[in-house]
């Protein structure tokens, strides 16, 4: 057996952490001396504590690690959990790569004496006349993260009914206040055929801009649009909407193309 000190030194896990693992039942010593409370571990437990360290390194929570330790020989179960973490890490890596790209642009502008917000001047805004469009849609209070799920439902309906898409999928934002966990959103697809399950998205004057880049840059576009609306003497007359011309699962964030429309009137 190994004392808690020796076990700690070999595994590079502090004795405080080992005591906590004992308290929550993650890895318990094989023997505790009743007289002095000293904890002892077996050498076979080194593999377990190393596994705990590996999973923590991969971003597993202690609760998730406990689930794995309940099924240590179930490769299928462990593989599924590892793949979930892999997907999350790839998404995070993509996010940080995008941040680095934005930082590089800001650094370049600052080195040339430009203001850090000078990029707003490059956002193009124009007034357009849109036509009434039949749309198949799902509107509800939703977590914005669930939007993709409803988009997939709509695409399935389009395929099952043999409908014809006329534009990329869109999201219409009906709430006055942004609440990402409980947002009045309408996910929609524009189709050629008008039927009982569709409604007409009204046409008319819209202030419009195109974002070529990550969705995180959308607030800058909306800010520029609102500035244009005020300067030109228009008022907002309807819910803004976005049309997604690229599939974010198929292109890099900086390659996304999103059209933003805000209905207006004089």
Automatic annotation (TrEMBL):
SUPFAM superfamilies: Probable bacterial effector-binding domain (SSF55136), Putative DNA-binding domain (SSF46955). Transmembrane segments: none annotated. GO terms for molecular function: DNA binding; DNA-binding transcription factor activity. The keyword DNA-binding applies. Residues 1-71 form the HTH merR-type domain. Keywords: DNA-binding. This is DNA-binding transcriptional regulator, MerR family.
